[in-house]
Amino acid sequence: MEVPILKQGAVLIATFQAALSDADLNQLRMGLVQQVVKFRSRAVIVDVTAMDVMDSFASRTLREIAHMIRLRGAETVIVGIQPEVAFAMVQLGLTLEGVATALDLEEGLACLNEKFKTAN
Amino acid sequence: MARRDVTSISPDPKRAEEPSELLRELVAHLRQNRTQLREEWVVRISETRLLLAMTKEEIFAEATSVYDSYVEALETEAFEALQAYARNLSERIIPRGVETHEVVGIVLLLRDVLARSLFAKYQNDFKKLNRILDAYEPAANRIANTVAVGFVQERERVIRQQQEAIRELSTPVLQVRERLLILPIIGVIDPQRARQLTEQLLRGIRTNRAKVVVIDITGVAAMDVTVANHLVQTVEASRLLGATVIVTGLSPEIAQTLVTIGVDLGKMNTVGDLQGGIEQAERLLGYKVATLDEAR
What we know:
Chain A is 48% helix and 18% strand. By secondary structure, chain A is α/β, with parallel strands linked by helices.
């Protein structure tokens, strides 16, 4: 399944679909980092609003994506985790530690703008 | 309902009647003597000092409809309809303070009054009386059972409703500034309430687009390990929605519990009291509070 990745200036926005297989997630991990390299992006927003379930593999993949992107000197923000999904995740101990999160796309972009402002 | 004319049935005395015929016969008798039997029942009710919460007029009105429903249930064996009637009746009388033992009591009294009446009618034909009772007793027992169960079901529904209301009341999620929510928790938290709290808070974060939440537990005396873990999970789940949580008002006992279970305090942002928590939240959100003099 193709995950749409949009470029918004120095930010890449990847919108996860509802049912991503493990293969999809693996592909995405490499694909996103390659895009960051290609466009010299400063940040990636991963929008998981459409995901109504988050298992341990998906959660681990998100953390790995964030780490790999940080090695390229860029930020990652995960946005759009639904309340029910968040509740289920913490009960399973999947806390996405060390990864920035925001309520939605708007908040994610605002948060990045803050970071860029203080960095510049 | 059409009245059955008993006199037109002239069975061969030697033939044993069908149970359904017997039922029709006794139902007809109960209908014919309705006024007198109902009156006898109401007298017995006040003699045994049941339904004290109701006035004589109310008892009479309810007694009439209960009597008619009772006889109808005997006749039609439509026990679902009876249960619906019982729940309906319960909805009316529970707020009046009527208790379960009273409802069961009056139904059993009615059963006795009607049974005595059957004894009196068939006292000269012992064999027939037995057959009549064979028809009457299972139905009457089922009626008593149905009414009691209907009553209890209604009480349980009311209790559940009230519990739900109490839970909702006691965990309000309040917005005090743009992007700032306060969750004041008071009383005892059990795992179920903790779970409900978390769900309400997460929904509130999304609805209000909150960036900071202050959870104040000044009003919570103690917390067991399970609930403490729930609190930690609430903090973590809120972070996944992009909100920072500040916990305020930890009592010494709760502080001890948290340390004992080894909560990673780096993950939990805590401040002494609610005032301090709000002040820190405002700083995080970029608010500055100044008196009017300073502001000039």
